[in-house]
Amino acid sequence: MAPVEALIQNLRFQAMIRGFRYVTHAWVSAGHYGPIPPEQLKIVLEQRLQGELFENCSLTVEGFDGEEIKLDRIEGILVLPNHSS
């Protein structure tokens, strides 16, 4: 289950670099993770994504091809640095 461990680390990393205090919803495209059915991947993620950052997080895992993660939160503002062109 190494790809799943990488997904969990990526979810945590993406939330932390965005400055999220907590994640309210995570959407994951499961097609990249091989023969694991989306329902089973969701169960594994629910068991492994614990702690303050994902305490009340709802998950949507769909079987689309490719690797995609979307995170959402209800409160707070995500401030991105301005890039001069």
How is this structure best described in words?
- The structure is a single chain.
- The chain is of the alpha+beta class and 85 residues long.
- Helices cover 32% and strands 16% of the residues.
- The protein is built from 2 helices and 3 strands.
- It has a 3-stranded mixed beta sheet with strand order 2-1-3, with helices on one face.
- Helix 2 links the parallel strand 1 and strand 2 (58-62).
- The longest helix has 16 residues, at 2-17.
- The N and C termini lie far apart (42 Å).
Give the SSE map.
Layout: H1 2-17, E1 25-29, H2 38-48, E2 58-62, E3 69-72
Class of secondary structure makeup: alpha+beta
How much is the average pLDDT?
Answer: 76
The largest β sheet comes out as: 3 strands, mixed
Choose one word for the global shape.
Answer: globular
Order of helices and strands: HEHEE
Report the sheet-strand fraction. 15-25%
Compute the gyration radius: what is it? 14 Å
Low-confidence stretches: 76-85
Helix content: 25-40%
The separation of the N and C termini measures 42 Å
Strand order within the widest beta sheet: 2-1-3
Total DSSP helices? 2
Number of strands: 3
List the main descriptive attributes of the protein structure presented here.
single chain, 85 residues, alpha+beta, three-stranded mixed beta sheet, 2 helices, 32% helix
